[in-house]
Amino acid sequence: MARKIVIIGSGGRLGAALVRAWRAAGDEVIGFNHALLDIGDFRQVHETLGDIEFDALVNCAAQTNVDRCEKEPEEAMHLNSQAVATIADACTRKKARCVHISTDYVFDGEKRTPYTEQDEAKPISVYGASKLGGERCLHAVSDQHLAVRVSWVFGPDRASFVDQILQRALEHKNVEAIGDKVAVPTYTLDAARLLRPLLDEPALGGVVHLCNAGSCTWQEYGQHALDCAVAAGVPLKGRAVGALKMADLKAFIARRPVYTAMSTSLLQQVTGLTPRPWQEAVEEYVRAHWAARQQ
Ligand SMILES: NC(=O)c1ccc[n+]([C@@H]2O[C@H](COP(=O)([O-])OP(=O)(O)OC[C@H]3O[C@@H](n4cnc5c(N)ncnc54)[C@H](OP(=O)(O)O)[C@@H]3O)[C@@H](O)[C@H]2O)c1
Q1: Per-residue pLDDT tens for 70-125?
Q2: Ligand 1 in contact with 61 (CB < 6 A)?
Q3: Is residue 96 part of a domain?
Q4: φ and ψ at 120, to 5 degrees?
């Protein structure tokens, strides 16, 4: 069913992909990038959303810089927690479904099997706490609104870890990535497909996990990206990714959870869709987008 959908954060990595994919599929999509709508200005949020009609809204806007959040906790709470209450309230007034994008960083990373929606969220950083605060603000407005936790987002609309490691391998022989932190990459084009049915499912409120299948370390993720680039015919100087320990990365300000793989069983049950393995998604991205840009 075609819908009228608002995307906040449409200039970002995930937001831009959702706008493009859903427009192509026939939805009427209104995108607000940062310049058009500042989620930190609550009056502007109410006025802007109050002036338009829509069936569903997806909030992809956030302060996503994990280290900046540690240094600027008030800003983090304002944008990642309190702004979500304002957006959710504006949706409720419109009787529209509100889907808010959250993160695997709500977990402390102490588990060694994939986190489910039932696992307790215990953030270990200001970013994680501010995003968990966003989920709570969302559900304080309505338990019919949905928080969708994603992890390690990559795609063609904004550079991420994959692009950084490939760029490094283009220029240098020595390439390294963290080998003792595990999560699941989420390809934005796959997220668009997996997320779309959730806009039509008014019964599902609460929290759902959404990512590709499997799990990996940053080192394995980077190695696979390099292998895919070589297979696509890109001449790389660096071909092997060495392992770093998270403890050795002195530039990190915020603590990062060491294990945040998420189970997508609930997503699969609700949508009937199965996320593909992260390796296939990375291969498609590297071949069809990154390598294509190198020619
Ligand atoms: N990236 C990841 O690996 C990852 C992992 C887990 C969860 N997530 C979550 O996924 C969602 C999307 O992330 P992403 O990867 O697409 O990140 P992104 O590319 O950084 O997108 C976030 C967007 O929010 C915008 N923004 C920041 N402050 C704003 C404000 N005050 N008002 C309006 N817009 C504002 C940014 O605009 P400007 O850049 O112009 O400021 C940017 O376009 C976020 O909720 C994030 O927490 C991401």
Answers
A1: 999 999 999 999 999 999 999 999 999 999 999 999 999 999 999 999 999 999 99
A2: yes
A3: yes
A4: -70, 135
